[in-house]
Amino acid sequence: MESEPEFKYKQCIIIRNDVKMSCGKRCAQAGHAAIGAYEKSSPTLKKAWLSEGQKKVVLKVNDQRALFEIKTLAETAGIAAVLIQDAGMTEIPPGTITALGLGPAKSEDLDKITGSLSLL
């Protein structure tokens, strides 16, 4: 029996649970967060993460304040972090902060910051 692959790197995408969005809208915001965080990451981390399969974990928080707190913790730890602000063209008001993208970074470093969050 094949063993599960071990991922040393990952991205964490965190979605606000208090903003009412359709499933498709949440997916779009997660995509924006993944790309935004990737673009801010170092070339070395990008290469390592890409080479092992681009693991992503999508998590949720209860409010905007929690997103800002996690972003601050990540940046203090040297992890690429990007907040996503919606343009307001469809379901939610313009300027609404919907998501946070972190990494790619070492899984163990992200777990220190996001380990208590629930999966979306």
TrEMBL record:
Q: Which UniProt keywords apply?
A: Hydrolase
Q: Name one GO cellular component term.
A: cytosol
Source species taxonomy: Archaea, Methanobacteriati, Methanobacteriota, Stenosarchaea group, Methanomicrobia
Describe the task this protein carries out.
The natural substrate for this enzyme may be peptidyl-tRNAs which drop off the ribosome during protein synthesis.
Q: What is this protein called?
A: Peptidyl-tRNA hydrolase
Q: Record's family? A: Belongs to the PTH2 family.
Reactions this protein catalyses: an N-acyl-L-alpha-aminoacyl-tRNA + H2O = an N-acyl-L-amino acid + a tRNA + H(+)
Cited InterPro entries: Pep_tRNA_hydro_II_dom_sf, PTH2
Q: What is its EC number?
A: 3.1.1.29
Q: Name one Pfam family in it.
A: PTH2
Q: Name one GO molecular function term.
A: peptidyl-tRNA hydrolase activity
**What EC class does the entry list?**
hydrolase
